[in-house]
Design goal:
By secondary structure, the protein is mostly helical. The chain has helices at residues 10-40, 46-84, 87-114, 116-122, 127-140, 144-159, 163-187, 192-215, 225-228, 232-266, 269-305, 309-336, 338-345, 349-362, 369-381, 385-406, 414-439. The longest helix is centred in the first third of the chain and has 39 residues, at 46-84.
């Protein structure tokens, strides 16, 4: 069965794609967040251990960036090929992405493992926090290949029209992690090392599930060895489109590094821990909106390949309005319950006090993220590579990074670090959406014609 995104109500198809994805990602997020909750509540060392994990975030984010370089570049092309009816090309794209993910995962493991000490100190570690960051990272890195394959190839399961199977990829790993975390951390007294080991085992389980789907006899598309050999003709299409996803995650890592270093300079290790908690809360509240746009992306790509442009416009409108409503509600919840949200992750009174104020600053104007998500998704889905890359860079590198460095120096000190994000949401989100509306949405032709965007 090959699911058809070209017929039926667009909003229903997007939700059919997005809801299982949201459930899967929520469970997946739980097993990352639960790590932090368990660690944050360790007696005596919880706050500093949480800071240590926060220092490892940029490295795990960079791994996700390289996953996106190939996966977010390949998945839209895969969906477009399906829409065109070119099944062999779709399978070749799947093979190319698989080969690149395996090769780069090995390279990242070697570099990360061998140079983790200087990297962690460069990213803002102190002598105390390094101990916890090192324990976590040296174990976590052994799951690099499994993490990249399970995350990267799962998008192809969704783009094939099997979101429930894609959901199970993440649910399987998440359930294992939720079970193993308390066993390793508390029962076996492994602490931070136990959290890392539980994560690696869970990633391996998810990876095996994904591979079993594409290697099974009844799979709609198969991973073939000969298609994994690098094909420059395909890679020159995959990589430029994936650069947008790479830049988005890569700039996230850059922002995390600069935030950690600046927070230590103008505050202390405690504020690095506060940012770790805030990032966790942001991931939770951002999830439903990102699921809608991720569920919509293969639908837009399929209809672009099928030249059904009216369905693309309908999809963009639905994603934008849906994300706006949700992000406004999420923003209100954070404004009303900041202290309660901080308390979920730590029982350290100082961290809760500092984090309550920081959380309210960081989430101000969260609703504007809806415009960034909708605009970025539309650009990526329809192969508008340069615009997708530019607006990924614009919000993070051109706005957030300079503000994170400047605001603390002009009198805002630690507050300036947390204020940079909402300013970027307003400016970057509106700029991305307005550009998408006038350079893409308004220029889509009548159904069946050639699009020149």
């Amino acid at each position: 069965m090959r699911n058809d995104f070209g017929n039926g109500k667009v909003w229903k198809i997007i939700l059919a794609q997005g809801m299982p994805l949201m459930l899967a990602q929520f469970v997946h997020l739980l097993y990352n967040v639960v790590d932090r909750i368990y660690i944050g509540h360790l007696s005596d060392i919880g706050a500093m251990a949480l800071t240590g994990i926060g220092l490892a975030f940029p490295i795990t984010t960079l791994i996700a960036a390289f996953t996106n370089l190939f996966a977010t570049g390949g998945a839209p092309l895969f969906a477009i090929a399906r829409g065109e009816g070119n099944e062999d090309k779709a399978e070749k794209i799947l093979g190319q992405v698989t080969g690149m993910l395996v090769g780069f995962s090995v390279l990242l493991f070697v570099v990360g493992f061998c140079f983790r000490k200087p990297i962690l100190y460069l990213f803002g570690a102190s002598d105390v926090s390094y101990q916890y960051a090192n324990v976590y990272l040296r174990i976590y890195l052994f799951g690099t290949t499994a993490a990249m394959l399970s995350t990267g190839l799962n998008g192809f399961i969704n783009a094939s029209g099997f979101p429930k199977i894609g959901m199970m990829t993440i649910v399987l790993g998440a359930i294992m992690n939720l079970i193993l975390d308390p066993l390793f951390i508390y029962l076996f007294h492994m602490g931070v090392a136990g959290a890392a080991l539980a994560t690696v085992i869970s990633q391996v389980a998810s990876c095996l599930w994904v591979l079993s789907f594409f290697l099974g006899e009844n799979a709609p598309y198969h991973i073939r060895k000969d298609y994994m050999i690098p094909d420059l003709g395909l890679l020159k299409d995959i990589i430029p489109l994936g650069i947008a996803g790479f830049v988005m995650q890569g700039t996230n890592a850059l922002v995390q590094i600069i935030c950690n270093v600046t927070l230590r300079q103008y505050g202390s290790d405690v504020f690095v821990g506060v940012m770790t908690v805030i990032n966790s809360i942001r991931e939770i509240f951002q999830l439903p909106a990102s699921s809608i746009t991720q569920g919509g992306q293969p639908v837009l790509s399929f209809n672009f390949g099928a030249k059904k442009y009216s369905r693309i416009k309908e999809g963009i409108r639905f994603m934008t309005i849906g994300c706006m409503i949700y992000t406004f509600v999420a923003w209100m919840l954070v404004i009303m319950f900041p202290r309660e949200l901080m308390s979920v992750f730590t029982n350290d009174v100082n961290m809760i006090d500092q984090g309550t104020h920081a959380l309210s600053l960081y989430f101000f104007g969260f609703v504007f993220m809806a415009f960034q998500m909708a605009g970025q998704t539309a650009f990526t889905a329809m192969r508008c590579t340069k615009r997708a890359i530019f607006f990924s860079l614009f919000r993070k590198v051109i706005i957030v990074v300079p503000l994170t460095l400047l605001l603390p120096r002009v009198g805002f000190r630690v507050d300036g670090v947390f204020m940079a994000e909402p300013v970027s949401n307003v400016i970057g989100g509106l700029a991305c959406f307005i550009a998408m509306w006038f350079t893409l949405y308004k220029k889509l032709p009548e159904d069946g014609q050639e699009a020149h965007i």
